[in-house]
Specification:
The complex is a heterodimer of chains A (105) and B (126). In chain A, 0% of the residues lie in helices and 55% in strands. Chain A has strands at 4-7, 10-13, 19-29, 34-39, 46-50, 54-55, 63-76, 85-91, 100-104. A six-stranded mixed β-sheet of chain A has the order 2-9-8-4-5-6, with no helix packed on it. In chain A, strands 1-3-7 form a three-stranded antiparallel β-sheet, with no helix packed on it. Chain B has strands at 3-7, 11-12, 18-25, 34-41, 48-53, 59-61, 69-74, 79-84, 93-105, 108-116, 120-124. The chains are: A mainly beta (105), B mainly beta (126).
Chain lengths: 105, 126
């Protein structure tokens, strides 16, 4: 069973700063298997990135994904107020990482 | 576009069976390249994948839950269902149904969950 680890657990940023979120898999996964989601309290999660680096429909280009093998990264260039949320990675459409909370500094 | 809606009791007694249904609208549950998925989030915790079912009835389950979980699909009514037995307070959570897309393109298989229901809160308590 593949385990996903995310770091940091919490990221405190001011609007306009850059966010770098990490997702590490316990073993190799194909890039096509890796997706990122944004989750705000009281809402359903929202798909941001699939295939490790492809933005989903309607996702602003300040969100980008990269990585391969066991190490993947979600970057938010110039965080906007609406970006403060919890971010999860998922592999193979199954298990999720524990999440990274992006909070206002 | 496709929309998903969860339905079922909001309160379940300990040791009883939790049953939820997800109705698919705006599309067919028989469409190729999609799994139909259940995910939950206990209060204050992260997302937990429960399992998924294909329109043929083929299933995959979270190993930690599979002894208690059964998924089923009704293609004639475009809905799929979750049944979880012997529930405890630890099963109290927001339960989401979702659509997971799966396809092969340019040398890679892709899996991602692109449509979610709004979620329904299930509390296990006497």
């Amino acid at each position: 069973e593949i385990v996903l680890t995310q770091s940091p657990g919490t990221l405190s940023l001011s609007p306009g700063e850059r966010a770098t979120l990490s997702c590490r898999a316990s073993q190799f996964i194909s890039s096509g298997y890796l997706a990122w989601y944004q989750h705000k309290r009281g809402q359903a999660p929202r798909l941001l990135i699939y295939g490790a680096s492809t933005r989903a429909t309607g996702i602003p280009d300040r969100f980008s994904g990269s990585g391969s093998g066991t190490d993947f990264t979600l970057t938010i260039n110039s965080v906007e107020p609406e970006d403060f949320a919890v971010y999860y990675c998922q592999q193979y459409g199954t298990s999720f990482g524990p999440g990274t909370k992006v909070e206002i500094k | 576009q496709v929309q998903l809606q969860e339905s079922g009791p909001g309160l379940v007694q300990p040791s009883q069976t939790l049953s939820l249904t997800c109705t698919v609208s705006g599309g067919s549950i028989s469409s190729e390249s999609y799994f139909w998925t259940w995910i939950r989030q206990p209060a204050g915790k992260g997302l937990e994948w429960i399992g998924r079912i294909y329109n043929t009835g083929a299933t995959n389950y979270n190993p930690s839950l599979e002894t208690r979980v059964t998924l089923s699909v009704d293609t004639s009514r475009d809905l799929f269902s979750l049944r979880m037995t012997s529930v405890t307070a630890a099963d109290t959570a927001v339960y989401y149904c979702a659509r997971t897309r799966n396809y092969f393109y340019n040398g890679y298989y892709y899996y991602y969950t692109d449509v979610w229901g709004k979620g329904t809160t299930v509390t296990v308590s006497s």
